Amino acid sequence: MKKFFGSLFGGLVLGLPLAYWWIGYDSITYSQFNLAGVDEVIVREMDFDFVFYASLLVVAIAAALFIFWSWVEKKSEERFYRNDSGNSK
Asked: Which ranges does the record mark as transmembrane (predicted)?
């Protein structure tokens, strides 16, 4: 569980700034005039393309971190077993 949540946290920390820098957030605003007795109504919407691509980037980075972490653990275990078996003679 530590590896999963660590990878997910790393994906968020690395992925969100990269997404904001690479993809760019475009706020969508438009004005409606004379709507329901109000002179001007400003409507702000979320950029769903940014949210979708940012979430894909976060998941991809988290998966890469998880795979890298698993590889490092496997190599360290192999090194431990190799050194341990050589010292037992």
From this structure: 50-72
